Amino acid sequence: MATMQGVRLPGNSTVEHVTAEVPEPGPGQVLLRMRASSICGSDIRAIYREHLGHGAEAYQGVIAGHEPCGEIVGVGPGARRLGVGDRVVVYHIAGCGMCDECRRGYAVGCRSSFRAAHGWQRDGGHADYLLAEEVSCLLLPEALTFVDGALVSCGFGTAYEGLLRAEVSGRDRLLVTGLGPVGLATAMLGREMGATTVIGLDPSVERVRLAERLGLVDVAVSDPDTLADAVTESTGGLGCEVAIDCSGNASAREAALRHTRTWGRCVFVGEGGTVTFAVSDLLIHKQIRLHGSWVTSVLHMEQLLEHLVRWELHPEAIVTHRFRLDQADEAYRVADAGESGKVCIVWED
Ligand SMILES: [Zn+2]
Ligand SMILES: [Zn+2]
Fold first, then answer.
1. Ligand 2 center to 109 CA (angstroms)
2. What's the chain's average pLDDT?
3. Which of 344, 64, 340, 59 is closest to 211 using CA atoms?
4. How far is the CA of 89 from the centre of ligand 2 (A)?
5. Does the structure show a pLDDT above 80 at 349?
6. Model pTM score
7. Which of 238, 216, 217, 234 is closest to 226 using CA atoms?
8. Local confidence band at 224 (pLDDT 50, 70, 90 cut-offs)
9. Which residues contact 19 (CB under 8 A, 6 or more apart)?
10. How far is the CA of 294 from the centre of ligand 1 (A)?
């Protein structure tokens, strides 16, 4: 029996290396040789530090990693479209395929007992091989790298969806609160979708500098008190037509609403926590449209892959740290520190 190396996250900020059988693809399934598997903020928040999740975020002791990208090395009986050698991104949640949310393409919102997310309830991408449903796989365009693909499979997809929800266009100035990987992705894609000015906020000076160095923001600040000045200066005191919170932090969410222009759109993408704000002042009287947005749909992910090629954008630009699978411990430590760009596990050959 062929075996592979994999990583589990037992909690308590630890990483456990395991040896597992290389799975056999059944009907409707494909086997991927993993090439890139990035770490998401959710992995840190709900699994690595401690197992916090319930429902969709309940971690069931499986091989971790829900941002997988690789190459198909085996297909189960009755494959419909994909074959050995195809490079694929995995939409990381397999749903029942039959409920309203699955029909919409948002398997992330599937509530059936068949729903299973890679790295949460079924084995994920932190292993040499990954078993995936063929319908969850999207062809990775030639022009994109495996690391690009891994970043699309959750983070960039999530950022893109938030921007779609806000209908960002060339009429808009964009505020991004939280410049972790999803915030950096939002800034990068938001500018390409037309935002004429991009303003960022993150308490980490390193992350502010990274966003500036990558040219993703026109101005970024680490001190919330200086954000008002930055927004005023960039928008003539009007506020941003669109604000997207990618932090999940209460004061950053409040700041996103506060600096959204009257009649503007605000999207909460950052997960967890709570928020308190003056509803009349910040929402009702400003006629603001406030959205929640969770991951993305399979179709939007596929469209994003196509757009990235046309836009000549490489998500991997925001990767600051690459590790081998046997260095997963260090990879998680770096990601948990909250000062880096994206952290990615890669397989070189
Ligand atoms: Zn994620
Ligand atoms: Zn479903």
1. 7
2. 97
3. 340
4. 20
5. no
6. 0.96
7. 234
8. confident
9. 3, 4, 5, 6
10. 10
